[in-house]
Structures are given as C-alpha cells and as structure tokens.
Design goal:
Length: about 525
C-alpha cells in the first residue's frame, strides 16, 4: 500500500484555538480522508509547540507553571479536535520526553559536526518586547513593535551555519519545482531570502529557561523553532529505540502550514534535514489566512471567532464546508456572519438539501420509491448529465490531488447545480402527466446516480451529510466507495426512504447573523 504522511503545524498553546487553527487542521483531515478513500495508508500528525518565552509569560499571567498551563491547553486542544472529528494518528507535544531527548541528541550532533558553533549575538534589544532587532528593522531608531527605546546588546549564543548549505538548497529548489506550494510563495522565498544569501541562524537563547537545555551548556536553551520543527521526525521515533515509523513514513509527503511560517519550513527545516543527512519532505503547502472584515482576528478588536459555538449551532459539516470552501488555494479568505449564513441557505439548504428532497419525493410519488435498474432508453439530456458528472469527477480528483480543496468543493457544487438544472430541463412532472414512464424512470435513475456521486465526493469533509444522503437513498455499501464513483449502471432494485429527512433546515438570515456576531469575542 502506498503511504502518505502529512502534518499540521504544532500550534502554540498561547490561547484558545480560533477558526484559523481549526482551518489548517480541518484541511489536513480532509486531505487525509481523501487519500484514504484513494487507497493510501495515510498518517496524520498534529501537536503542540509548548516551549518558549511567550508560553512562559502566558502561564505566569495565568498564575500557573508553564507545565500546568501547557497540560491544560493540550487537553483543550484534544477536546476541540475530537469535536471536529479530526482523525490524527499522533499528537506530539514538545515537552514530552520522546521529543526533548531527541532534540538534545540532534543539537549535540550538529555541534559535533561543526554545523552549530558558539559566537556572540549582537543587536538592538527591546527590553519590554524581549526581542532583538537589526539596525534596518528599527523605525526611527526605536522598537518597530512598541516604539520604545532599544539598547545595543551582546549575548553569547549558538549559531547554525546556514551558509554552508544554502547552495545545496538552491539546487534542490531548481530540481524540485513543486517543493513549495503555491508557486508564488516559492518565488518569494527564493528571491527574497535564498538569492540574497542566508544569514547564519541563532539557535539558542539564554534570556529564559522554558525550553530544551543544551546538554553541554545548560544555561542555553534550544531556539524554539529548531525544537519545534524536529517534531515531524521525533514523533516518528527518529534516533529512538523504535524508529519503525520513521522507516515507514519519512520523508513526509506534505507539510501543511500557514503562510506566516513558510520561511521556517521552506528554508531552515530543509537545511536542518540536510545537516542530519535525511531526505527532505516532498511538499510544503502554505495556505492563506482567514481574515475578518476589519483585518486580522485579534482579541483587542473583539473579532475572534471560535469553532465551538459555530459547530454547536450549525453542525460540523456546515462549519467545515464554509471554511474549506471560502479559502481559495493559497489565498486569504474572509469570514463574515452574512457569508456564513448565505452559504448555508444557498449552497447547503437550497442547492443540495432540496435536490435530495425533491428527488426522493418524486421517486416516491411516481414509482412508489423504487429504482429498478439502468434504463434501456436514454435521452440526450440524460447523456449530458452523465457526461457532465464524469468530467466533474475527473476534475475534482485532480483538485484534491493538488490540494485545491476549495476548487474541489466548488466543482462538486457545480455538479449539484447541474443536477438541479437537469430536473428543470427534463420536467419530470410533465413526463408523468404524459405517461412517459420509461423516460421518467431514466430521469429518476440519473438523479439518484448524481446524488450518489455527490455524496461520495463530499465524504472527505462532510462525512455526516454524505452518510445521510446514501442512507436515505438506500445505496448498497459497495456503491458508496470512491472506487465505485465511475460506475454508472450498477444501481439495482433500490427503494429510497419514504420518510425523507431535511439535511439543512432553512435559517432566518437576520436572526442568525446576529447570533454569529454575538459569538465573536
Ligand atoms: O506558528 N487563518 O504556531 P501558531 C488560517 N508553533 N490559519 C491560521 C490563522 C488564520 N487566521 N491563524 C493561525 C506556530 N493559523 C508554531 C508552528 S510548526 C513546527 C511550529 C494557523 O499557534 C496556520 O496554520 O502560531 C499558521 O501557520 C498556524 O496556525 C500558526 O500557529
């Protein structure tokens, strides 16, 4: 069986996870489920990045030790992933011994090899922000973040020799043009960072101690990104007693990240791996950000939206449908309460829900719920819809394979719309009135086929809706699989339900927009 190893970023437990974090994870789960449908042995890793000064400070502010804080946050994260039915195979936390022990070993080894060397870090330090800046980053000689005075400071630090590997990485980029997706991000990394030349990277800190200590020099802790990135291999047992998962799954097929952290994944991570003599991941896809009408989500603006209340009120499938559809490939998307309610009412309730209801209603009315077998006489309109859905399936698979999930969903809804149009074109009520029963049978057959296909195509991200459609139509198990998508004439002796259940009840727009606005914090 072909394997597929994919990862999400490991998130900082600095606050409650909002719909942005949920988006990356839902996207990862969708890709995993799709790969499984296509016969891959898929392995999904997620987790938490628990070290660093930021976490130490948040814990202090909450009157907790860092460990108490991250333990609680890990529980909450797992609760959210369970609510969202995320089928991860492992959840790695960077404070776990299986991780920290290996980070120590990696740091040691890189030091021994001479890739990490000791030197002095010099820069402009902003005390309140606890951050170093270079001369050019300063604004009017002051801190670019808070505008306060900065001081020139020197600190003893360990550095990673990035320069040594830069040419190899450039070559790798040339030889693997699809390594970084989308292409625009790759070009950015290449032109803005690789071409001008990489600076050596400071990989240790002495200003705080919540991290993995450098074994041979414990007043230093390992830089949080060197610590964090290695999770992708420590979780597989790299340098541990049992590294069978590493054997099986490395290199990763896909690292899924947001555009904010592509620099770390596209530059530093490959170089760390080269230094460790390990193969590089096959692809890194950086998606865009979920934005709000007034820009980024932030607590100070009071515009943060969390997944839980949305899922509770509108269901998991609706939530996933919205975020996955709204985020075009590599682009930012916008969350608005109006957009959310509109997509629900139009796409889910009107287009998909009504299609199922109308179809079941007609089959019951005209044929007592029975679909017997593939019709003998096929009209041109029937042929057209068959052809349309064949082409759709092909395109949707291609979109899934290249992680254009929003396009895959949009194309599926084209099929939904086309099927609705087919009802208008064939006007089954007239066929019935004119007693053209063979033609009417064929229309019903084609409607069920379309719905069966749609139900299979949405399975990776709308499991429950998919199941409800297949159940109401009474589709046999063997015709519920991805492999059966291309079969078009196998449905036989089916009796659809005589008690159709509404998939998505219509929402009252104004009330719901208000409801969602009240969910924002
Ligand atoms: O960066 N829209 O963790 P983090 C879409 N610990 N995605 C969003 C988003 C938004 N508005 N906000 C956040 C870290 N994300 C490091 C990662 S990996 C070795 C270490 C998602 O908690 C997106 O995937 O800040 C982004 O890259 C990630 O959360 C950042 O999570």
């Amino acid at each position: 069986m072909q394997k597929f190893y994919l990862t999400t970023p490991i998130y900082y437990p600095s606050g409650k996870f909002h719909i942005g974090t949920a988006y990356t994870t839902a996207l990862a789960n969708t890709i995993k489920k799709y790969k499984q449908e296509r016969g891959f042995e898929a392995y999904l890793l997620t987790g938490m990045d628990e070290h660093g000064q930021k976490i130490q400070k948040v814990a202090e502010a909450n009157g907790k030790t860092p460990q108490e804080h991250v333990d609680k946050m890990a529980e909450e994260a797992k609760k959210l992933w369970s609510l969202m039915e995320i089928e991860y195979d492992d959840f790695i936390r960077t404070t776990e011994e299986r991780h920290t022990k290996v980070v120590e070993k990696i740091f040691d080894r890189l030091m021994e090899q001479g890739d990490i060397y000791k030197s002095e870090y010099e820069g402009w330090y902003c005390m309140p922000c606890e951050t170093y800046f270079t001369e050019t980053q300063l604004i009017d000689g002051k801190c670019p973040d808070c505008g306060r005075e900065v001081k020139k400071m020197k600190e003893e630090s360990y550095f990673f020799n990035m320069k040594k590997y830069a040419d190899r990485l450039i070559k790798f980029y040339y030889e693997n043009p699809n390594f970084i997706l989308p292409e625009s991000r790759k070009n950015e990394l290449f032109n803005n960072f690789l071409k001008p030349g990489l600076e050596d990277l400071c990989v240790s800190r002495t200003s705080f101690d919540w991290g993995v200590k450098v074994k041979k020099d414990p007043k230093h802790v390992v830089y949080v990104w060197l610590d964090a990135l290695t999770n992708y291999i420590t979780a597989l047992g790299y340098l541990s007693e049992n590294d069978s998962l590493m054997e099986k799954y490395w290199p990763a097929d896909l690292h899924l990240v947001g555009k904010d952290i592509i620099r770390f994944h596209g530059l530093y991570w490959p170089i760390f791996l080269m230094a460790l003599d390990l193969p590089l991941p096959k692809q890194i896809y950086a998606h865009g950000f979920i934005m709000m009408k007034d820009g980024k989500m932030s607590k100070s603006k009071g515009n943060v939206i969390y997944p839980e209340p949305l899922i509770e009120r509108y269901g998991l499938d609706t939530f996933k449908y919205f975020i996955l559809r709204e985020m075009s490939y590599g682009q930012d998307g916008t969350f608005t309460p109006e957009g959310f309610v509109e997509r629900y009412n139009f796409d889910l309730c009107n287009d998909l829900g009504n299609l199922l209801n109308r179809t079941i209603g007609m089959i019951n009315k005209y044929f007592n719920g029975d679909i017997t077998s593939y019709p003998n006489i096929i009209s041109d309109l029937d042929k057209e819809i068959e052809k349309f859905s064949d082409v759709s399936i092909h395109e949707i698979e291609e979109y899934f394979d290249t992680y254009h999930i929003s396009n895959a969903i949009a194309e599926t809804w084209n099929l939904v719309s086309r099927t609705n149009k087919y009802i208008d074109e064939t006007a089954p009520w007239i066929l019935f009135k004119e007693e053209k029963y063979e033609a009417l049978k064929s229309v019903m057959y084609h409607l069920v086929e379309s719905l069966r296909r749609i139900a299979i195509l949405i399975k990776p991200y709308m499991k429950h809706t998919s199941k409800k459609i297949l159940q109401q139509l009474n589709i046999p198990e063997e015709l519920q699989t991805w492999n059966s998508l291309t079969d078009y004439n196998k449905l036989k002796n089916i009796k659809v339900t005589d008690k159709p259940e509404v998939l998505f009840a219509r929402l009252e727009t104004e009330t719901e927009v208000e409801e969602i606005k009240n969910m924002m914090k």
